[in-house]
Structure formats: C-alpha cells, structure tokens
Specification:
Blueprint lengths: L5 H17 L6 H11 L4 H14 L6 H9 L2 H18 L6 E3 L2 H10 L3 H7 L5 H17 L11 H8 L9 E3 L2 H9 L2 H22 L1
Parallel strand pairs: 1-2
Helix pairs in contact: 1-3, 2-11, 3-4, 5-8, 6-8
Protein name: DUF6475 domain-containing protein
Pfam families: DUF6475
Organism: Halodesulfovibrio aestuarii
C-alpha cells in the first residue's frame, strides 16, 4: 500500500473506521498512520480482506500483528514454508550476494536470530538443516506474533566488503520469494520508519499547540 495513493489511503481508512465502529473505538489519525505503516508491505486488497475476516474471527479490536496473521495464515504453517525458502536461497544464492526476502519476518529471523545472511550461510551444513528448521520455526512464530520485522536487504559478503572499504556497492541483490513483494520490502526502509516517528511527533506538537 502507498500512503500517497489517495484511493488506497481512503479505502484503508474506511476499512479501519469500520473496525473501530464495530468495537466502539475512535479512529484517530495517529492510530491510522500506525496501522498503515505496519501493514504497508501488503496489497490493499489483502489488507481489506483481512479486516473482513477480523470482523467475524476477532472478539477484540485486532492489532496489526493479528491482521497480518489473517493475511499470511497460521504462523506455525507459514514458518515451515519460510524455512524451506531460506534453505533454498542458501543453496542457490549463497553468502556472496545480498538478498531481500518477500517476508520481512523471515528477514528479521535471519538478521536478529541467526546473525545475518553471511553468518547463516557460512554455518549451514547438510547435517544441520533439521536443527535449523526447528530453531527457525520457533523464532518465526515468536517474531510474527510480536510483529518483529526487517525491511531492506540482508548484506552479503560483497556488500560488507564494499562498506568496509567505503566503496559504493553496485552489486544487484537477489529477490527471494515473490519478486514484487520482495521489491516492496526493499523500498520500505528505515527512513520511512523514521518518517512515521516524525509524523507522529508533528501530530503531538500540533495537539500541544492547539491545547496551549
């Protein structure tokens, strides 16, 4: 989803307003922005379908992580699929090239749970795949339910070496999984997370000024 796309933004706000009305909640601008940024990696149609599911499946007002679960499915089942995706990427791409996964939770597990892409590739052995699956799935379920995600590329050896030498990195990254979603994850970077904080800070400043 794109906040600057007026049609997508209005459809999202209508869906969120409907959820708020059903649960007797107030749809504030700050809430809308938080939910939007948490769900921006997904297509608007997927988000709206998940909101409809939440109407019948959630007794309480759904958090972003719950809406994501309605989109992606049961975390335990998704974890098994993502583990296979990672193992295939390790064998096909290797540690040299940077990678971008179409699932930011998977990227977070690799980066924060396994020490990054290069470390994971370097330590992976055929006889360790069974234990990797077990550990990966456990972390994936935990990260998914806590909404821990990582956007952008996971650096390979070439990118790390270029950064150490202060050399521009022109190495093309490998998109893993759905290319469109992986490309979207690549563009949703930390600057946008910072811009969200800036927007919320501006909202707070406006509120304080109005109350002064």
């Amino acid at each position: 989803m794109d906040w600057n796309n007026k049609q997508q933004r209005e459809r999202f706000l209508q869906g969120l307003a409907g959820l708020c009305e059903l649960h007797n909640r107030q749809a504030t601008e700050a809430m809308a922005k938080l939910y939007f940024f948490a769900l921006q990696q997904f297509e608007i149609e997927d988000v709206l379908r998940a909101m409809v599911k939440a109407v019948t499946a959630s007794k309480f007002f759904p958090r972003p992580a719950e809406i994501i679960e309605f989109i992606q499915g049961n975390p335990e089942d998704v974890a098994e699929v993502e583990a296979s995706k990672v193992l295939e990427a390790v064998k096909r791409v290797g540690a040299y090239k940077s990678v971008v996964f179409d699932n930011p939770v998977t990227a977070a597990v690799i980066e924060h749970g396994f020490g990054g892409w290069v470390k994971l590739c370097s330590e992976m052995r055929a006889d360790s795949e069974k234990w990797f699956r077990k550990d990966f799935c456990k972390l994936y379920v935990s990260f998914s339910r806590q909404d821990v995600r990582y956007f952008g590329e996971l650096a390979g050896r070439a990118a790390i070496a270029n950064e150490a030498n202060c050399t521009p990195n022109y190495e093309q990254v490998a998109l893993i999984g759905n290319a469109g979603k992986a490309q979207n994850a690549l563009t949703v970077r930390r600057e946008e997370q910072l811009s969200l904080i800036t927007m919320l800070a501006n909202d707070a400043a406006k509120h304080d000024a109005a109350g002064a």
